[in-house]
Amino acid sequence: MKERKMKISQLLKIEPGLTALIGGGGKTALMYKLADELSELGCVIVCTSTKIYESDDIAVVTGDSEDIINTLKTHRVICAGTRVGGGKLSSPTITFHELKDIADYVIVEADGAHKLPIKAHADYEPVIPDCADKTVLVMGADAFGQPISRICHRAELFAERARVTVHDEVTPELVARVIAGEGLGDIIYINKVESNESLTLSERSAQLIDLPVIAGSLRTEEYICLR
Questions:
Q1: The domain containing residue 177 runs over which residues?
Q2: pLDDT tens digits, residue range 81-99?
Q3: Could you tell me the pTM of the whole model?
Q4: Distances (CA, A) of 39 to 75, 110, 117, 189, 209
Q5: What is the tally of helices (H) and strands (E) in the chain?
Q6: In this structure, what CATH number is given to the domain that contains residue 104?
Q7: Domain assignment present for 104
């Protein structure tokens, strides 16, 4: 894959404000990568509107706005949330509107996929804050060529919207069909694109999606704009 010497935050055009991450596996890794890059430009709050695992590398603030403001005086990146047990955090104690007033950048993991690379969304998903400025739909290229039943969260719903069965394999065309049908997200990020084959498959999907599409690998930090 051709390396694009730009940061993923630049390619996704993340501006100050609140960015929601939805879709399949890779959201948490993308959230922390964006936070790291954006911390060079301003202070960053990461959080969730659903549930995420707590990170050992980022200060967690479970208090009110005053606690968050005070912690940001000594940390460029913090995680705001409520501990719910099992090492997990739920949404912060203050509103997302308030978080936007405190930090330059707020990155919200606004969806769950049980660590699977793609998903279909139930009627109550995703949980995008109403003050979101941008929504990034994430998926993993490792879904291509795998049975829907094994690689997709809400497999039956995905198959229904793709007009196939759960025993069919995930193809670029089926992914594009489901994304178009759901109409979620402002930009697509396809992660784990680390071979010519996965790049070719991602390009096939991008040609059928009427949204900007970025492909690449958070592991290798190589990215390319496909659309």
A1: 8-225
A2: 999 999 999 999 999 999 9
A3: 0.95
A4: 9, 21, 27, 21, 31
A5: 8, 14
A6: 3.40.50
A7: yes
